Amino acid sequence: MTTSSQQGSLKAYLAWFTCALFFFYQYILRVAPGVMVDDLRIDYNLTAEQFSTFGAYYLYAYSLFQVPLGVLVDRVGIRRMVLGSIGLCIGGAFLFATTLSFPVAQLSRALIGLGSAAAFMCALKIAADYFPEGKRGLLIGLTLSFGTVGALTAGKPLVLLLEEIGWRDTVSFTAFLGAPLLLMAVFLLPAQQKSTKSSKSLKGQFKERLVSILKNRMVMLYTLLAIGLYTPLSALADLWGTAFLMQKYGLNQGDAAQTSMMMYLGMALGSLILPWFCEKYHILNRGIQVCGFSLFVLMAIILYAPAVGILTVTLLLLGLGFFCGAEMMCFTGAIIYTTPSTSGLTLGVVNTLNMLGGALLQQLIGFGLDWQWSGVMSAKNIRLYSTQEFVFALSSLLVVIFICCLASLALKKKPNSRPG
């Protein structure tokens, strides 16, 4: 016979699992355009810069919603928030699959990004509200792992579907995957808990805390470093990796998609191992510096070294993803320079600016490809980009990582203790 506490614990785990599964699902929707690059460009007759908006608009909507999201979750509750968010993802995916209009397709990607924004935040809130301190770190790490598996799932399996049923039916299939998730949210997520503070009081506190965070020099420095450590993942794994690997390394679409997604496996390992190791030996800032310079070296090898075999490319991308995991250490560093009352909002601000940086880089790469385009067209009347043109455009990542490396030198050997 189960006790009431065991039943409560089971409900909490099921609620967390539902949000973690939502995080898994939104990653499939997030990286799908990168897998479908050729199909989308042919169907809509897109330039590289136009195609980049499918990733960028998702990230713009996702990132700009992060700061108000925490306040909104407190007001409407996790259950309503997740139900509305999954509905937006499903509706956006169906709209993307059916529209013949490029602007409407862009809008659909923004809707999917808006819907996806709540997945990780709600999983964190359930971990914080319903579990003791000793279990929260494990649940956060497992949530990140769910997202990684979602990204890996969007590689070769989606390509196989593409080859069988075309990109529109494939996107429709991903939309249908959200239906059982919606049912799980209806039955397994907790009802709203009423806020005890007035909306006027919350609004005033929000403004004051937001201004104090934006004026905090160390928080902004860690934010800049997070952007530099995150953008390789955003640019390659989310959008441009498949096309680049097909062009430079001669991989077929399925192998290129799966290989680029290996960055997420590296990211999962890095985001678990690096923060644990660096905090254990009190080398958080030194770890960020080492990871930044390691990213610079690996990115330079991938761009400028001669083409190598698929195994070597896979190892290089795994390494790139692993060092991108240092992004999590930047979040830890930023929290050290805030108070407990502003830590949640600080995470929202850092994540917003971080994701915006990724979106801007995705579009900058597309602009660089079109700027360097030599005029070569395919038989299906879309622009073809050479390896040199890809290398030029992706070199913008190296510039950002190099700026990150220089900025990391401003970090002290050890971060200050957290203010009370």
Feature tags:
single chain, 420 residues, mainly alpha, disordered N terminus
Blueprint of the fold:
Blueprint: H1 4-35, H2 37-44, H3 48-64, H4 66-76, H5 78-98, H6 102-116, H7 118-130, H8 133-153, H9 156-176, H10 178-188, H11 199-214, H12 217-249, H13 253-280, H14 284-304, H15 310-324, H16 327-336, H17 343-372, H18 387-408
Helix pairs in contact: 1-5, 1-6, 1-7, 1-8, 1-9, 1-10, 1-12, 3-6, 3-17, 4-5, 4-17, 5-6, 5-7, 5-9, 5-10, 7-8, 8-13, 9-13, 12-13, 12-14, 12-15, 12-16, 12-17, 12-18, 13-14, 13-15, 13-16, 14-15, 14-16, 14-18, 17-18
Would you write up a description of this structure?
- The protein is mainly alpha-helical.
- It is 82% helix and 0% strand.
- It is built from 18 helices and no strands.
- The chain has helices at 4-35, 37-44, 48-64, 66-76, 78-98, 102-116, 118-130, 133-153, 156-176, 178-188, 199-214, 217-249, 253-280, 284-304, 310-324, 327-336, 343-372, 387-408.
